[in-house]
Design a protein that fits this description.
By secondary structure, the protein is of the alpha/beta class. It contains 7 helices and 6 strands; from the N terminus they run H-H-E-H-E-H-H-E-H-E-E-H-E. The protein has helices at about 1-5, 15-25, 40-45, 55-60, 65, 85-90, 140; strands at about 30, 50-55, 75, 120, 125-130, 145. Strands 3-2-1-6 form a 4-stranded mixed β-sheet. The chain starts with a helix and ends in a 5-residue tail after the last strand.
């Protein structure tokens, strides 16, 4: 593995996150959640002193469940790109929006990707496609993002 990626330091993720939080001093922590990373997010963010904004698929389909988590301070329902700038300038501006129509989302441009990585089997056929998050903004594609302090 060292030949492929170089020397890798073993770190404890929660300690590393806390170090970044202490060094960076963010005003908010943004986390994009799906069901499979919920417990990881909880383990990492439980007890942090910075307000947590949870967005992504899980808060959109189960807002009551996510909103009832004592380690989550705010949730974003639906497409975050239309809400995050407003939220960062004034957290009270975060209000649930109607879910957008996927017909209104621009076509995904996959020209930069090797075609072999885009072929996906589904129901007996092979389709060309990729993870939707690859073509989205940072908030939708990262598992964890630390927002810069508002100046």
């Amino acid at each position: 593995m060292t030949d492929l990626v170089g020397k890798v330091d073993n770190v404890i993720p929660k300690d590393a996150l806390n170090s970044v939080i202490n060094e960076f001093n963010p005003d908010f922590i943004l986390v994009s959640m799906v069901e499979r990373n919920f417990n990881t997010a909880k383990d990492l963010l439980l007890g942090v002193t910075v307000p947590v904004l949870a967005g992504g698929i899980l808060p959109t389909i189960a807002p009551e469940f996510v909103n009832n988590q004592d380690w989550v301070d705010y949730i974003c329902v639906g497409e975050g790109e239309n809400q995050i700038d407003s939220f960062l300038s004034n957290p009270s501006n975060l209000t649930p929006k109607n879910l957008c129509s996927m017909d209104e989302v621009p076509y995904q441009d996959w020209t930069d990707f090797d075609e072999r990585h885009l072929l996906k089997p589904f129901m007996g056929k092979v389709y060309r496609g990729g993870a939707f998050e690859f073509s989205r903004g940072c908030f939708k594609s990262c598992s964890f993002c630390v927002a810069p302090a508002i100046r």
